[in-house]
Amino acid sequence: MGTNNQKEEGGVAGLGLTRERLAQEILPAYVTGRRWFSGHGRRLVRLDLDVVDLVPFPNGGLATWLLLFTAQFAEGAAQSYALFLRRQPAAGRWTLHDGGAGGGFLVDAVAEDDFCRTLLEQVASAGDLPVGPGRLVGRPTSMLSGLWPRGPVAVTYPGHEQSHTSVELGDRLLLKVYRQVQRGTNPEVEMGEYLSIRREFPHVARLAGSLTYEDGAGGGVVALGILQERIDATGDAWTRTLEFLERYLTGRWQDDAGRRNFLTRALAGVERLGQRVGELHACLATAKDEPAFAPEPLSGPEWGAWCQELAHALQTTADRIEGERRHLPPPLASAWRQAWARGPQLLAFVRAAGQTPPSLAKIRIHGDLHLGQVLCTRQDDVVFIDFEGEPGRPLAERRRKHLPLRDVAGMVRSFGYAARMARRRWPGPGRAARAAAWERQAVARFLAGYQRARAEPVDHRSWLACLDLFCLEKVLYECRYEIDHRPDWLEIPVAGLIRQLNRLR
User: Fold this and answer.
1) What is the pLDDT of residues 61-100, one digit of tens each?
2) Per its UniProt record, what InterPro entries does this chain match (predicted)?
3) All domains of the chain in start order, with CATH
């Protein structure tokens, strides 16, 4: 990213701080404590300030700066982040620095109600403001006027952070501010325009606008946030699934018929979810006239390379599990040793699978699909959210076309995670067996709904064999994630990995 060296007596103009203190002390202390900072577990070497400049918002108010900065680590790739900062008389919801008497407080502006309204106006008015070497540009879509007929809006913070910060604006809009950023076409903006505007797919949140930083010096475009439709949801599918499992496993039932009826209704919802995922993929597979979305054949070399990468991931993940076996309950550790005793045969099986590519087309996919990315509506239906893909991956990779089985595998593994989580939270006689039985039924009903909606002329056995490989890819990622972030939870994906390995024969 290009740098802006605007200074005032050795500091950032108007901010009252030197660039060195901002980069070496104040920013590291703040960002490393936020959930959206994805460098946890890595040694941060320094933060490089790429852009630090005042944003000349037309409505005046408190001075606000846009910061684009790069986190450099002792190992691995650097990461870029964006922050809006401002100095104000009182502490904010998220305060970075207390300047003392007369100095004011330096706060994360996204946590201030009036600033979020300012961003809404910036997008709605198609604002174009000079900031550093580039411009801050708002772009409304045709959906915005129907979702916000101007006027004041209440600002509500949902109370939890993810890889981004979401803010509810009134009853019908959601402002989503990206924290980790990259230069290039943002897949969530691209997918939102395609699905909700050009194709009018009913099961996604409609895109209302976007906010970007555009570097005129040739640095490209950085998506800073989007406006989208706020869904009046009863919760996400992950939360609803765990609520169901708690009642199903621990509830007091007058008779078995009551429990069976409860299960039947829930499985009907799972099948509907599978149908909606199938409809989403069918919609994404129809863009014959748009190069960014048009289906492409899967080549033999491409499939072979992916299988080689999968075999490598299997070996390296197994090595890491061996080093963390103390976190596994003894019975599970024993089952892991038994499953991995076939390691050479399993690796050979995965590599050999690369010699026979499936006759399936690549399309644009969600890329990070699981139960937490699905909202349950009051109309007993679903809406898919968060199409930006995994934020830690390069934009080009997140926009790349894949076999839709990758999304399907994400959902299948999500059911497995929920079942194992339920066994962990609510142990008791017979409950583990009931949770496992539910998982098998849920996966079967989900796949039935999905295949009915896609109606692809494929060989069912070959399709399931490919799905097994994608489920293996997903569960290996889960194992690495838990080793890095929650080693006490490692038993959950390892149990899934053992089962997945036992299916490869």
Assistant:
1) 788 999 999 999 999 899 999 999 999 999 999 999 998 7
2) Kinase-like_dom_sf
3) 19-230 (no CATH), 233-296+362-402+412-456 (3.90.1200.10), 299-357+459-505 (no CATH)
